[in-house]
Design a protein that fits this description.
Blueprint lengths: L1 H7 L1 H10 L9 H4 L2 E6 L7 E4 L4 E6 L8 H10 L6 E4 L3 E6 L2 E7 L6 E7 L2 E7 L1 E3 L4
Parallel strand pairs: 1-3, 3-4, 6-9
Antiparallel strand pairs: 1-2, 4-7, 5-6, 7-8
Amino acid sequence: MLLLWKEWGVDQVLKKAYEKGIILAGLSAGAICWFEEGLTDPLNAPLYKLECLGFLKGSKCPHYDGENKRRSSYHQLVLEGKMKEGYAVDDGAALHFVNETLSNSVSSRPKAKSYIVKCVNGEIIEDEINTIYLSVI
């Protein structure tokens, strides 16, 4: 997707939209694309780092609780310095940024969470982000 966007100039159209304040959103690959890096697994191949659009600093890992290799792969890449520190989100959770600053984490599932993932003194630290459950009344 990102290769085609760059080839077709879609990345520049999205950048202009972002600079004009147009809301950009996405799920899974459509969410990691806004960051500098993302953890991806096309067609269930091995997980690897993907260079993304870079509108938001750091990295993003989707499906943190939904795929059994996600958390450990993300931890290992960040720990080894092969991937930037960043954000991880469970299935059903989302991050809301305003002017490149995290504003909120919301969820469509009661127990879904978001995390800031970083390496401190050779250890992975997960700081849970307060996540608002958007229950249906």
